[in-house]
Amino acid sequence: MKTNFISSLLLFVSASAFAQTKKVLPPKPVYPVPSAQQLAWHEMETNAFVHFTTNTFTDKEWGYGDEKESVFNPSQLNAKQWAKTLKNAGFKTMILTCKHHDGFCLWPSKYTEHSVKNSPYKNGKGDVVKEASEAAKKYGLHFGVYLSPWDRNQATYGTPAYIEYYRNQLKELFTHYGKVTEMWFDGANGGDGYYGGKREARKINGATYYDWPTTLKMISKIQPGVLFFSDAGPGLRWVGNERGMAGETNWNTITPDTLFAGKGGIEDLLNTGSADGTKWIPAEVDVSIRPGWFYHSSEDDKVKTPQQLFDIYLSSVGRGSTLLLNIPPDRRGLFHENDVKSLEGFQQLLHKELGNNLAKNANATATNYRGKSKQFAAANLTDGNKKTYWATDDNVIKASVEIDLKKTTTVKYILLQEYIQLGQRVKSFTVEIWKDDEWQQVAAATTIGYKRILKIEPVITNKVRVNILEAKASPVLTNVALY
Ligand code: FUL
Questions:
Q1: Are 453 and 318 a contacting pair, CB within 8 Å?
Q2: Mean local confidence (pLDDT), 22-29
């Protein structure tokens, strides 16, 4: 009798201990989710483009392909100046136009005469791709490659022989210049060109001509993990404009079946993506610091101001994308003083506006958190740790979090981040502040994604509330910051 009693007591004690420590499982991912490379790219936030070729010396935007190699003659080229400037301005990657539409190669490709090897630069012994990739490495930047598929110089453009030429050049770039993290495939094809002297218009079928799958497989064999940018991915998609504007609604997901580089009329779709997209292909926001992509002295006074760059930051990074800002070297081969100054000003403005998170370690509470487990509590939103997150129970979509600042202060920006490793979920949300003894709405928006920054009319408050209204599944957020 006694033993029976003791054993049932033991059973009861261990059962209740089990109940208490029962693990609350994390939410299941909402597919698709980003690859490791895509996640790293999201976290970069700002990358830089460097447009440089014969255009810099002929004052053009699109070279015809017939320019003499002798025009390419930078007098003081210094790729370390580019890399140092970019590093100081917070950029993480430098992507160089190794070959633009004119077909002129910044490296001594053995497959063409239209290259730096026949220019006066370093008496034909120069290699700008080498200098740029080494400078990037020296300053801790990733290196990316732009190789224009459209080549207005090549006689074979439009035939299968050109595809082989193009692939051979990719092999050179991916074999001799260290690690390449991003490959930029430009969809432009304006038709006419020099084409080895034919001077005619050539149109290709963008859906089939380049046979991208074979090319991408080839590159991935040489360097696995390269992120491929094109209008349609597969790694990153074009944002649909060159003004620095990601969609107000910006899904990282899209269904690429009928998309291809150079296909027109899909700009709106590329800009917003689609909630039910089958692939994770986030939009990259490419825009130039000047009106043109290449340097023109006539644009020296048209360099975007720090404020304009900051606004672009808000409409790109602040809408869940990564910014790819172009800074074109001048005829000396240096970033122009005006561009450098503007970048410095941008960096200072960024620091001034978004450098001091008022919600850091602030008390955060939620109307619901998963299994009432500390692991998923709202405190994770203000702990500054990108690995922890607030998550609700599976059936709870509408939920609110409240951030208590303990004292009244001026709030100008609300920054939110989803834990995108588990997919992009939120479809709409509002933000309220506590004022005059009531909650007052200050913002309403749709998607969040990797990062969303909302600029509001400055308000004085001590409490901020975020209400998730609609989502694909239970919301999972890693960060709420206030500035
Ligand atoms: C476009 C090109 O035609 C421009 O010259 C520039 O390179 C831009 C980034 O992409 O498609």
A1: yes
A2: 93
